[in-house]
Amino acid sequence: MSYDHLVGDVIEWLVHESLEALSPPDLFVGMCERLHQIGVPIDRGNVAYTTLHPMIEAETARWRPGEPLETIQHDHDASEREDWQQSPLRYVTENLIPLFRRRLTGPDAILDYPLLVELRDEGYTDYLIQATALAMTSTSENQPVMPGMAVTWATRAPDGFSDAAIAALTRIHSRFALAIKTSMQASILGNVAATYLGPIAAERVLSGQIRRGDGAEISAVVWYSDMRDSTHLSESMARADYLALLNTYFECTAGAVLAHGGNVLDFIGDAVLAVFHTDAAGLEAAARAATAATQTALANRDEALGANPELPLSFGIAVTAGEVMFGNIGVKERLRFSVIGPTVNEAARIEALTKTLDAPALATAEIASAMPESWCDAGQHVLRGKADPVALWQIATNSN
Predict the structure, then answer these.
(1) Residue pair 119/127 in contact by the 8 Å Cβ criterion
(2) What is the distance between the alpha carbons of residues 245 and 305, in angstroms, rounded to a whole number?
(3) 271-277 and 263-268: which strand pairing?
């Protein structure tokens, strides 16, 4: 039996849907269902593809007829796990083998991997892997970054996959790889933008706000932290130890902001600049979230110091609110999407006072009034560059 004409219809569907920016799992389940409907004897399909993400190395989606699609994200340590080390997929991808086949029953059966024994015991008779390298980008040395995509197929047909079925799966594979590549490029672009810009800035940039000056005036709670004694520590500590300290500090501070719904906009050396938007949630809700992030950051610091009392980890936090300009700044060839304005400057100057007042965190009146039980009066203080004193509140002792 030839599937040529019918597979052509599936290919047409793949081309159309790849232009609609379907996700890789959606493309895969749609292709599997259509191949199954035209009689290609697939009883289990699995697609695996690498991605560019700080926490996720690869994603997989597994299809079985009549069952919900199973999707799994694999972290960067997954390649060290025993199941991957003993996987035929590892052998295929590391050796760039385009087609791998194992009969699971009969005189030609080869069960040289634990997975193949499992599949045989589940009633499968034949197993295929089709793998493709996908050149996505280039490095400064003009070397391609090569994510990979592999599809595995298994059947319960008594005689396994026929030559016609293998020909059909081979014919569609390159088209599916192209569709996956198109989908992955959009996903990788979104991942990279969100990782380096933050989700809100990434959304604005990807929607077309890419010219210098693009942006808007927004109301926000500005959250700013800075690590103490960083210059001395950078000069006195081993580089690896200092980088580890910086990452612990960022986990304490930026991690707390993200945990409470804020947006980290910038790492300015060892400072963290973040905002909690007030336009949608309102000032009080944003101020409460920023206060909770402050409490969490200080609790994270105490936990880190409890595990390692010798760790030189100390920082100050400032929280204030006002209008900020949220948009692109820089030169035409190199832009940064961030917030600027007097409110941001005020936050940095308030944080500088945390050292003078020996206070772990300070906030302005509009922040403290949202959660008065979490702040105590720290008096009136003159900020650098301002003539009139500003009333400040210190985080309550029982809040850190």
Answers:
(1) yes
(2) 11
(3) antiparallel
Q: What size, in residues, is the chain?
A: 400
pLDDT in tens, 330-341: 666 665 666 778
Chain CA centroid to CA 105, Å:
42
**DSSP labels for 287-314?**
HHHHHHHHHHHHHHHHHHHHH-TT----
In sequence order, what are the beta bridge partners of 128? 101, 153
The sign one gets for the Cα dihedral 355, 358, 361, 365 is: negative
Q: Which CATH superfamily is domain 4-197 in?
A: GAF domain (3.30.450.40)
- Cα separations (Å) of 278 from 165, 222, 324, 373? 58, 10, 11, 21
Q: How far apart (Å, rounded) are the C-alpha atoms in residues 194 and 263? A: 10
Residues whose CB falls within 8 Å of the CB of residue 378, separated by 6 or more in sequence, listed in order:
357, 359, 362, 392, 393, 394
- For 80, 102, 129, the CA distances from 106, given in Å and listed in that order, are 33, 11, 19
Phi, psi of 270 (to 5 degrees): -110, 20
Q: Could you tell me the pLDDT band of residue 144, with boundaries at 50, 70 and 90? A: very low
Domain boundaries, the chain: 4-197, 199-399
Q: How much is the pTM?
A: 0.62
Per-residue pLDDT reduced to its tens digit, 166-191: 999 999 998 898 888 887 776 766 66
Give the number of other CB atoms < 10 A from CB of residue 254. Answer: 20
The phi-psi region of residue 198 (left if phi > 0; otherwise alpha if psi is between -120 and 50; otherwise beta) is left
Distance CA 210, CA 337 (A): 9
* Residue whose tokens read 């009146």: 365
- Please give the CATH superfamily to which domain 199-399 belongs: Nucleotide cyclase, GGDEF domain (3.30.70.1230)
Distance of alpha carbon 375 from alpha carbon 80, whole angstroms? 47
Residue among 365, 372, 389, 396 nearest 221 (CA) = 365
Side-chain-side CA neighbours of residue 101 (13 Å): 15
Supply 128's token pair: 């295929």
Report CA Rg, the chain.
Answer: 28
